[in-house]
């Protein structure tokens, strides 16, 4: 009888072990199934993103091949609303990076670009920031390690920090690098961010896509009323040449305004080579966003300069 009891317990024990093992196996199977579908979904989302990137590049190429002027009424500048795709959506938009002030324009061929410097100082003043910041940034970018101004320090300043470092002495690689430059604290960087970019080459401002703040920084003569009027006129009819824009600001070129004319001509353009693409895609459980900087050559060919993926 006792033996029978032991046998029953043994059987129950075996059954329990089988049940636990089976449950564990099912759980593991479910887990690996979830992992697999997560991976499949991530892969599909990336495929959607890559598709959107190709589509954006194609649109920019076609645009360059059909015209040499860039403005916000063109197809590339239109926001695409979330587009349903298999088991998800894709959305994205392209912005003209030349609508912002390229901080790397401050130094060209290791020389301070006076026109760009004037623009940046006006932009800083407009945002109630210290115009001296423009010199700290020039020192950070130019090749030497001595300051361009008396009574300030360049490398010696950075080497004197709690965690010492040196100035880059080259163009900003990424806009986030700005936070390392003397005087550019978090609040300052955040204030400037909507108006500035860091492109690999010095560039001009595209007046057909520049914001009101950037237009005002182009010249001392442009006040808020004129800038607002310029934007209203631009919405009706974009500028086909730089001269058309300068004439709208200063009037026809004459002996009195020729200095201002040439100063503005150094800063502005009506076509763009640098763009930013933002794409968001979802497939099943996976969601990815991409921010990518693009360069478009004169022949329309688009190359990717940088890519950042975020969940
Ligand atoms: Ca165009
Ligand atoms: Ca330097």
The helix tally amounts to 9
Written as H for each helix and E for each strand, in order along the chain, the element string is HEEEEEHHHHEEHHHHEEEE
CATH architecture of the domain at 2-98 and 273-310: 2-Layer Sandwich
Bound molecules: calcium ion
How confident overall, as mean pLDDT?
90
Largest sheet at a glance?
5 strands, antiparallel
**Strand line-up across the major sheet:** 1-2-9-10-11
Assigned CATH superfamily of the domain at 2-98 and 273-310: GSPII I/J protein-like
Quote the distance from N terminus to C terminus. 65 Å
Radius of gyration: 29 Å
Give a short synopsis of this structure.
The protein has 311 residues and is α+β, with helices and mostly antiparallel strands.
SSE diagram, text form:
Elements: H1 2-66, E1 80-85, E2 88-96, E3 101-102, E4 107-108, E5 111-112, H2 114-126, H3 133-141, H4 155-159, H5 186-192, E6 196-197, E7 205-206, H6 212-217, H7 224-236, H8 242-250, H9 258-265, E8 268-269, E9 274-283, E10 286-296, E11 302-310
Parallel strand pairs: 3-6, 7-8
Antiparallel strand pairs: 1-2, 2-9, 4-5, 9-10, 10-11
